[in-house]
Structures are given as structure tokens and as C-alpha cells.
Amino acid sequence: MARLPHPGNPPRQVDAYTTHYGRLLVYARKLTGDRNTAEDLVQEAWCLLERHQPDSVDSPFRYLRSVVHNLFVSHLRRRKREAEVDVPPDTLSETIAADQPTPEEAVISRLEMERLATIIDTMPPRQAMALRLYHFENRKLREIAAELGVSISFAQALIAKGLATCAEELDRTGPR
To answer: Among the four 2, 5, 6, 169, which has the fewest Cβ within 10 Å?
Structure first.
């Protein structure tokens, strides 16, 4: 139940509270859909009105109505933030599990890597080395070019030709 205004409050504010309480409660209930939350919002609005000097608010009802609305918006934002933070444990474990490959996916990836390794082994040595350095060791083109003793553009061409060979061979042999 809502707290009544303190008897020492200015009469204008007390009148505004007692006169408009019912209308404010109906408005707050329409916003929230819940009587208890509506009462809390109206009570909180009253507490904010209590802090003002009696002459600082021209229309206490309009002021209280806008405060109730603003408090409701703040209430929604707070609930949204809490919902974002409170991730149910099952959801969290499902999310983590979804990031992990299934056993079947792991086997398929391993087999594809073995096929790629076999294809790369059949390439000319410089081309195979350039492809391995670039894709498996994450080396930069200039580093690869320096290690192989070739220009950067030639190192890039070796990698491109190697990738094309891998794609062609994978397409030719199909999935396994």
C-alpha cells in the first residue's frame, strides 16, 4: 500500500497527491500491467515531488504523471539490463557448446587437412613452402619473399598458384 504524504508537507503537494493518486495509479497500472509495480512508481514519484519547493512545480499532476512515465521507462531499462546480465546456466553452456565442433566436424576437418597436406606435398618445393609459411605459419609476404629469395610479387604468385592447385584438386576428388 502506498505511503501517505507526511503531514508536514506543503498543502499544495499533499492535495496533489491525495487528489490525483487514483488517476496516477490507473495510468501507472496501464503502463506496467501490474498493480504492485504501479504503486511503487506512484510512490516513487511522490517522493521526488516531496523534494521540490512548493512553488517549483506549476502543475503537480502533470509533473507526477511525467515522473511516473520516466520512472517506468527507467524500470524497463533496468529490467532489460538485468536480463542481459542474467544468462541462465543452460543457455551459457549451450552457447559454449555451439562454438565447439561436433566430433563428426572434427573428423571431417582432420581428413580435409590430411588431403590438403598430401596435395601440398606434390607441389614444387618453393610453392609448397610459400603456401605453408603463409597459411600455416601466418607469415607476411615480405618475410616469405626474403626466406625464399624471391620478390614479394613472385611470392604472392606462388601462394595464389598453390591455392588454385588445392582448390582444383579438392574439386576433382570431391568430398570424402
So the answer is: 6
